[in-house]
């Protein structure tokens, strides 16, 4: 009798456990999302706290080598750049990064010299992009 109870108990655990990742199986068709448009930005300042305007920057997806910064070169982002804020990922990229994580490298340039090289771990759920790790407040010496 005791052996049957143990077998039944273990069977429940075996059925409940599986190797499938819930994130891979996440069905977003019925997700309820806010209308907020999320943009992950990086702040670049000098040692005195003044915003730094970079001559150019890149946001490289390390897995595929794509430069995502080309998505942020419109006039709507010019004010952010003048204030030392640089977008690295937005909800415009959500589907590309949904239910995955990726490493992005932010590279900043002044007078054709690379002055910033920072890595960021990012991803997205059904609704918005997310920053998992990385320095969002960069101080140039």
Radius of gyration: 22 Å
Helical content (DSSP H or I, runs of 4+): 10-25%
Helical/strand content category: alpha+beta
Task: Summarize the main sheet.
Answer: 4 strands, antiparallel
**Silhouette:** globular
Strand element count:
7
**Sheet with most strands: strand arrangement:** 2-4-5-6
Order of helices and strands: HEEHEHEEEE
Instruction: Report the end-to-end length measured between terminal Cα atoms.
Output: 73 Å
Poorly predicted tracts of residues: 2-23
Strand fraction: 35-45%
Number of helices: 3
Mean pLDDT: 82
Describe this protein's structure.
- The protein is α+β, with helices and mostly antiparallel strands.
- The chain is built from 3 helices and 7 strands.
- The protein has helices spanning 2-16, 78-82, 94-97, and strands spanning 39-46, 56-61, 85-90, 101-110, 113-124, 129-133, 137-140.
- Strands 2-4-5-6 form a 4-stranded antiparallel sheet. The protein has a 3-stranded mixed sheet with strand order 3-1-7.
- β5 and β6 (129-133) form a beta hairpin.
- The chain is globular and about 45 Å long.
- The relative contact order is 0.22.
- The model is unreliable at 2-23 (pLDDT under 50).
């Amino acid at each position: 009798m005791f052996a049957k109870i143990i077998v039944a108990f273990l069977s429940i655990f075996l059925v409940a456990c599986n190797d499938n990742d819930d994130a891979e199986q996440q069905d977003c068709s019925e997700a309820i999302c806010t209308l907020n448009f999320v943009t992950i930005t990086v702040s670049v300042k000098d040692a005195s706290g003044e915003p730094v305007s970079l001559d150019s920057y890149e946001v490289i997806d390390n897995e595929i080598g794509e430069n995502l910064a080309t998505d942020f070169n419109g006039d709507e982002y010019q004010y952010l750049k003048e204030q030392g804020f640089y977008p690295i990922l937005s909800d415009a990229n959500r589907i590309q990064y949904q239910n995955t994580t990726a490493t992005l490298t932010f590279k900043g340039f002044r007078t054709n010299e690379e002055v910033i090289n920072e890595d960021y771990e990012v991803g997205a759920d059904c609704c918005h992009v997310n920053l998992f790790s990385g320095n969002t407040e960069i101080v140039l010496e």
